[in-house]
Automatic annotation (TrEMBL), chain A:
Domain of life, source organism: Bacteria
Keywords of this entry: Membrane, Transmembrane, Transmembrane helix
Pfam families per UniProt: CbtB (PF09489)
Spans through the membrane: 25-43
This protein's name: CbtB-domain containing protein
InterPro entries: CbtB_put
Keyword Membrane found: yes
Automatic annotation (TrEMBL), chain B:
Organism annotation: Kineosporia mesophila
Transmembrane residue ranges: 70-94, 106-125, 145-164, 176-195, 244-262
InterPro entries registered for this protein in UniProt: CbtA_put
Lineage, opening ranks: Bacteria, Bacillati, Actinomycetota, Actinomycetes, Kineosporiales
Keywords from the UniProt entry: Membrane, Transmembrane, Transmembrane helix
Keyword Transmembrane: yes
Protein name in UniProt: CbtA family protein
Pfam families linked: CbtA
Length: 75, 280
């Protein structure tokens, strides 16, 4: 039981190669991330502190319990 | 490959969201209803005191039944899918760029990072609150601070991983991980110490005095007699504990459901790499 070395004493698995190069997948990953953050915003924030559709509160009221439970500020 | 990974991330996220919804429906909804009942009774008591009106609009857009079933269900499942998508993106970017981590283990690590970075660390500073806890006037400030805390937590977590990888060459995996983890905790602690508590926001101090949080205190009449109790401490704790549990369930499900799918998707490629007899 000597001290840890960079190679380590536990046999490592074969390294996974880069399978998603940014040059090819960058746009798709970026677009998906944007969509995901939009969903995050509409469930957690919209029609509370900020509102895209003015004074309407339907989204806020519908996801209301989830908003509280997921940890977002509300009320 | 990236499309397949994202689709599997969405699927894992939907499963995680569904499981956390089942948990929420059973354990959290009764507490949310109790908090709303407290709020209603408190508003009535306040009105009876006829102090400076802080009237609550009583109109309901959706019934409580709809909010407590369909509403929270849609919210948690969509949220799970969004987190599953973000998870898959980070997972895809990590593949082949973070050293010798098996596809399945990487799945658990990325899910753990999502839980800690996106939810748990922000929660420690600004914990989840049930209805009735939180002043309407401060919603903008509270939202800004919460999102800032999430952003700081995620950025610092990414920096900590980069730091860990730099240190790995010199100190090895074990020590580098501990050093980077400690650096993350210290950095996140500094951010927490710098950001204000909700109760100390200017808008709150102006109308409620100096308190750490917005949790409703007992209501008193002009003589100082308590006429309505403060928010029940046990209810607040149980709601928060369940909030953590639901996110834990969701992220654990994402990591565990995604892992075997990613393994199947990636194993032919890993197997092709020669000179290492240990594959399982
Ligand atoms: Zn609310």
């Amino acid at each position: 039981m000597s001290s840890t070395t960079p190679s380590g004493s536990i046999p490592a698995a074969a390294a996974t190669p880069v399978v998603v190069p940014l040059s090819r997948a960058g746009l798709l990953l970026f677009g998906t991330a944007l969509l995901a953050m939009l969903v995050y915003y509409f469930i957690g924030v919209d029609q509370g502190a900020y509102s895209i559709f003015g004074a309407d509160t339907h989204i806020h009221e519908f996801v209301h319990d989830g908003r509280h439970f997921l940890g977002f500020p509300c009320h | 490959m990236e499309k397949k990974l994202i689709l599997r991330g969405l699927l894992a996220g939907a499963v995680g969201g569904l499981l956390s919804f089942v948990f929420a429906r059973i354990f959290a909804e009764p507490q949310i209803q109790a908090a709303i009942d407290y709020e209603g009774a408190r508003d009535a008591a306040q009105e009876a005191l006829s102090t400076a009106a802080h009237a609550h609009e009583g109109h309901e857009v959706f019934s409580r039944t709809l909010q407590g079933n369909a509403g929270i269900g849609v919210a948690l499942i969509l949220f799970g899918m969004a987190m599953g998508a973000l998870f898959a993106i980070v997972y895809s970017l990590c593949l082949g760029r973070v050293g010798r981590i098996q596809p399945r283990n990487l799945s658990l690590l990325v899910a753990g990072a999502g839980f800690v970075g996106l939810y748990l660390v922000p929660f420690v500073k600004y914990p989840a609150n049930p209805p009735a806890v939180g002043h309407e006037d401060s919603i903008r400030d509270r939202t800004d601070l919460y999102l800032l805390m999430v952003l700081a937590s995620v950025v610092l977590l990414v920096l900590a991983v980069v730091l860990g990888q730099r240190l790995q060459a010199r100190f090895g995996n074990w020590t580098a991980t501990i050093l980077a983890g400690t650096a993350y905790l210290v950095a996140v602690g500094v951010v927490m110490a710098l950001l204000p508590q909700f109760g100390h926001l200017a808008v709150n101090e102006a109308s409620y005095g100096s308190h750490a949080s917005e949790t409703p205190l007992p209501l008193t009449d002009s003589d100082g007699n308590i006429v309505f109790p403060g928010f029940p401490a046990d209810l607040l704790f149980d709601f928060r504990l369940n909030s953590v549990a639901a996110q834990l369930i969701m992220w654990a499900a994402i990591g565990v459901v995604f892992a075997p799918m990613a393994d199947r998707l990636l194993s032919p490629r890993t197997a092709k790499i020669p000179a290492d007899p240990i594959t399982a």
